[in-house]
Amino acid sequence: MNPHLNPAVLKQALRVAMEAGDKVRGATSPNPPVGAVILDAAGRVVGVGATQPPGGPHAEVMALRDAGDKARGGTAVVTLEPCNHTGRTGPCAQALIDASVAAVYFLHPDPTPEAGGGAATLRGAGITVGQIEAPDGVSDALAGWLGAVRLGRPHVTLKFAQSLDGFTAAVDGSSQWITGEQAREHVHRDRAKRDAILIGTGTALADNPSLTARYPDGSLRETQPRRVVIGSRDVERGGSSNLAKLGFEHYATPQEALAELYASGARDILVEGGAGLATSFMELGSVDRIQAYIGNVILGQGRGVLIRAVASHLALAPRWQRAAVTELGADLLVEYRKNEK
User: Which residue among 60, 81, 272, 335 is the active-site one?
Assistant: First the structure.
């Protein structure tokens, strides 16, 4: 039996590789958060690696280091086609060739012209190369990065918490807390995986948010997103402390923010509020994914997710494709992605 050709072995190895990539998401941009696994000649996992922060080794190199001599004659399973160019690090395709692996399987082809072509290089060296599908129930850490490459701007997720009847705040403006502790903890885990979090000046003035990714005890997580405020107003806290001095970036418009963030390396960003900023991004057509946290409360009246209509008739409203539903205690997280069809 050739273990590297066994679909069940490959699928399980890809699951491990995807989990490894997800662990470094938020720390690798502008590089993709790739995960890699090395199987020895008997089909056993002997190496696992993930992309390191910019300038550090790529996932394949980390996995090969972990495997050592056991990689010889084995199989590499990677979430992205091994790169074929020399940047701050050498080409991963050549590293796999040098390690004498027998086969390489990957989830996504590399869409970038400067790094693509790794599969052809590997085949030219006599290595078996194939593409495999993702197993069910595993988060794809590359979705945001791949979207950004395709769009030429950061991939944008719009996140909001709402009541069962669709309101983000009560009539008196109170919004803490529509969702419970499990949902809020999930928000902080997600923040740590983003390159940047965006809010409008109105939200910054009204809520005085920190936008940090924290553990339940209030301590900061190891990876923190860039914190961005968008709007034309000069935003100050307490009448004296400018947000820039507290580490916030400030852009006048969503278009400026998208351009500057992409140019400076951000690929996967989260728009958290408020309704005005959410509406601006929707009207621009720049929302690629939606995270709707649904709390177990009914309000009847209150503040909506958007401040004005983005479709004049139901038949004109775009339909979104459901991507995932997650139970978080008494609440739900329902995620949708833009329907490209």
Answer: 60
